C-alpha cells in the first residue's frame, strides 16, 4: 500500500512540475485551439483560395472565427499568397489571407500604451509601442508576458512581439468598442469625428467598456479646440480654409 502511495505522489508531483514548466516555456493558453483572430479591417472571406475567387463576406478588425486547419497557396499572381480556411460564428465558411487572420489566438484590446519587446525579457524592449485601443491577437504567454500580433495605429503593417499581460483586456465589449473607435478617430473632418465618437458614447451596449472615459476626454479635447479664442484655422470649415 505504501509503495502505491509513493508512486502516486511521485506521479502527481511530476505532472505538476511538467505543467508549470510548460507554462513558463510559453505554451499556448488559448481555451479553444481552433480560435483565430482578424487583425485587419474588412478582410475578404472568399469561396476558394484564389485572388479572383467569389467574395462571400468581410471580417472586421478583432473578429474571432474558427480555424478549419486547411491552408493553400495561390501562385497565380506576381507573388504567392497563403490562404487559411475558417468558419465564422454565423456558420459561413471560406478562405482568408493567412497573414491577416492569426490562427490559434484570441482577441485582445490594448488598455494603455505598452512597450513591445522582441522576446519575453525586459532587456529586449524595442523602439515602438502599442497605443490604447489597438487590437491584437494573443497567441501565448510566458511569465507576465504575452505574445501578440497586431497593427499599431502609427505602424504601416502587422507586427509581432511580446508585451506585459496587464496591458490587455479580453472583454468583448472593449474589443468591439476599440474596433469601432479606430474608424471614428480616423475621420478627417474634426466635427464629423466628434459626431462619430459621440455616437459610440450614446450606445448603451458599450457603457461598461474601460474605453468610455478615454473617448469622452477625446470629445472634450476636440470640442475645446473649436471654442472662440483657439486657433482660427481650426474653426473654419474646410471650404474656407482652402481659399
Primary descriptors:
single chain; 243 residues; alpha+beta; SH3 type barrels; 5-stranded antiparallel sheet; 14 strands; globular; disordered C terminus
Chart the SSEs and their pairings.
Layout: H1 2-24, E1 35-38, E2 43-46, E3 55-59, E4 64-74, E5 81-87, E6 93-97, E7 101-103, E8 106-110, E9 114-117, E10 125-130, E11 135-142, E12 145-150, E13 159-164, E14 168-169, H2 172-185, H3 190-202, H4 212-224, H5 232-235, H6 238-241
Antiparallel strand pairs: 1-4, 1-7, 2-3, 4-5, 5-6, 8-11, 8-14, 9-10, 11-12, 12-13
Helix pairs in contact: 2-3, 3-4
Order of helices and strands: HEEEEEEEEEEEEEEHHHHH
Task: Label the CATH architecture of the domain at 35-103.
Answer: Roll
- In the CATH scheme, the class of the domain at 35-103 would be Mainly Beta
* Fourth CATH level, the homologous superfamily of the domain at 35-103: SH3 Domains
Q: Approximately what portion of the residues adopt beta-strand conformation?
A: 25-35%
Over the alpha carbons, how many angstroms does the gyration radius reach?
A: 23 Å
Shape: globular
- List the total number of helices: 6
Give me the count of strands. 14
- Regions with little confidence, pLDDT below 50 for 5+ residues: 6-27, 230-243
Distance between the termini: 95 Å
Strand order of the largest sheet: 6-5-4-1-7
What oligomeric assembly is this protein in? Answer: single chain
Secondary structure class reads: alpha+beta
Average per-residue pLDDT, rounded, comes to: 86
* Share of helix, binned: 25-40%
- Main sheet specs: 5 strands, antiparallel
The CATH topology assignment of the domain at 35-103 is SH3 type barrels
